[in-house]
Amino acid sequence: RRLPRTAAAPNQMWTLIRRTAPFVRCKSCYSDHSTTRHFYTRTSNGVPTGLYGFDHLKSPNGFQRFVDDAIERSSELVNYISEMPSSVEIIRAMDEISDAVCSVVDSAELCRQTHPDREFVEEASKASMRISEYLHYLNTNHTLYDAVKKAELDGHLLSKEAHRAANHLRIDFEKGGIHLCADKLDRVNQLNMDIFQLCREFNQNIINDPGHVDIFPESRIPKHIHHLLKPICRLTSGPSRESLISWDNKKEKGFRITTDSRILQSILQWTSDDEVRKMVYIQGHSVPQANHEVLHELIAARNELAQIMGYRSYAEFIVMPNMASSPEVVKSFLLEMSKMIKPKADEEFEAIKNFKRKSCGQKYVHLEPWDEAYYTAMMKSSAYNLDACVVASYFPLGQCIEGLKMLAESLFGVTFHSVPLAPGESWHPDVLKLSLQHPEEGEMGYLYLDLYSRAGKYTGCANFAIKGGRRLSETEYQLPVVALICNFPGSHNLSVRLNHHEVETLFHEFGHALHSLLSRTDYQHFSGTRVALDFAETPSNLFEYYAWDYRVLRRFAKHYLTGEIVPEKLVKSMQGARDMFAATELQRQIFYALVDQTLFGERLGQTRDTSSIVADMKRQHTSWNHVEGTHWHIRFSHFINYGAGYYSYLYAKCFAATIWQKLCQEDPLSLTTGTTLRTKILQHGGAKEPADMLNDLVGDGILRYCNGGIVPDITSFSDEVKLMEDKQEQILL
């Protein structure tokens, strides 16, 4: 998931939208001379293939040939473009280059993040580096740049989508620095390589150094989460230690708590021992120390890159091509929301503090950040008599997958079918493959599911592109292929039961997958989630609503033993508990977005002390204390994946709320509703302006124009989190 829901784990779960270097934003088209390159994955006849259906990837060394072929084919197309064919053919060929390169980039990244074989991972890493170096050659190729500019000027000869592709390609070239003098261009290329390496190092440090705390005795940890922890022992102290006859008689049992985000959240939510929660919170928010320097270098490199390119800051460099258009518009939007949310967030803070006071039987108590998850869980349980185990009993994973299939069929008239994996196609026995089919349009695309946690696997939840859709000819279409990656407990066991947060995460990621699979763009450059940064999360956030609506849940949520449909009363209790601390959660997301804008903004300068900046901002923009010595931002991976773009999650929340209320809420499973969503949003990917698609979908009242940029209308979202009455009171005062 892209929106972390707990203070304990700002990087708890998120979905990953894949992006690459400026020239190739992982997008491509069709070409009359490329029909033999049609990516086709119906491999159920038992014929061996390679990873993801690519024949080259039958062995780790196949990545070398995969890169060689991509470079060879791209070079042929570069030569073709140098002959200055028609503008239509220029854009088609450019898009095929993008398709060839992105097939390597995306496959290598998915392999790096999920493959259990270290040799495959190492070869994928090498392939990623080689293709990145080739990207720099493409990004600085003046023949391609001149051809794209020619095509853009011939806009009257192109389709609207082709002209948009030409415009985007030209902008991407210029963001890569092609218009700069040689010295500056060399520096930009070096900075891009440095940034690439720093991003990898930041994420790898999080994996390598999650931190840990040893707790004795084991009784300090609730029994139902013992399975998450590593049992350890120590000798008890005493004068007769040397004369011990039996180790077993004098050993004390305890646990080593690894403070990665998932375990950290479980400890903070379920452990009554205040000192344990404090130790775990501080440790989990203090590592990896190595990322202090990595983040400093990353901020400096991104800032220098932006300034060479003529921007005041990296934030401006990132935000300008998107709906917001400027950091000033983003900051204004965030500060407006921060001011609006503060009274209600303060009320919630006082309510939690009062509950702690009563629970502890003390007149004066301090409410600390490590208290939040524990006491809010107790308050929700008390107010709505909720038991997490009872809720999970209605959500076995197999039934949840059937729910996703039902949702797709009801809304879009499409069906998912299990497809046998060919020998060599899969990267783990847990992987499933589904084909998406339409009764009139035939096959729509393919979805891999890799849903269970395992050692060495990407720790979040994400939607990975493997192949983008593109039109190959008047009669042929390259089908999109994506992989949905999650980390649910268990292995190859569809009866594993999900908590509702995990169900919501699954629906969120499914929204990303459908965005890709239902997309029918002419150019791979615009396929699926390859859209403006501050629009990309809108469909996935919309699909979260379906995980909460009883009319949807009753169709698939059934008790794993009895088959009983989930009671409506239980769902209403879940909804009530969800809304109890909505302002606190929203305030946290605003804070994250403000920190993101500040660290990559123009006023940060050369300061190395990001921790004091973050601490001051927490005091200013949240109701909670900053704990001295903690540095949550050094394990906040969104700075890597969405640097200066975290605000886009809040944009998505607001857009999705309006779409749900105006289009979906009345009849959420209506084929008419789904057809409208598909024809006005999903099928266009990034081929149309997001603002035009949003206005076309629901009409007025979804966005507004502000200082040259676009911000969401917050009315629907504010109504959901019960803020409008508070805003009206502020206006009256």
From TrEMBL:
Family that this chain belongs to: Belongs to the peptidase M3 family.
Subcellular localization(s) per the UniProt record: Mitochondrion
Cofactor requirement: Zn(2+)
A Gene Ontology BP annotation from the UniProt entry: proteolysis
Molecular-function annotations in GO: metal ion binding; metalloendopeptidase activity
Domain Peptidase M3A/M3B catalytic: 271-700
Keyword RNA-binding appears in the UniProt entry: no
Cellular component, GO annotation: mitochondrion
InterPro entries: M3A_MIP (IPR033851), MetalloPept_cat_dom_sf (IPR024079), Neurolysin/TOP_dom2 (IPR024077), Pept_M3A_M3B (IPR045090), Pept_M3A_M3B_dom (IPR001567)
Cofactor note (record): Binds 1 zinc ion.
Any Pfam family: Peptidase_M3
Organism name: Citrus sinensis
Keywords: Hydrolase, Metal-binding, Metalloprotease, Mitochondrion, Protease, Transit peptide, Zinc
Superkingdom: Eukaryota
Name of this protein: Peptidase M3A/M3B catalytic domain-containing protein
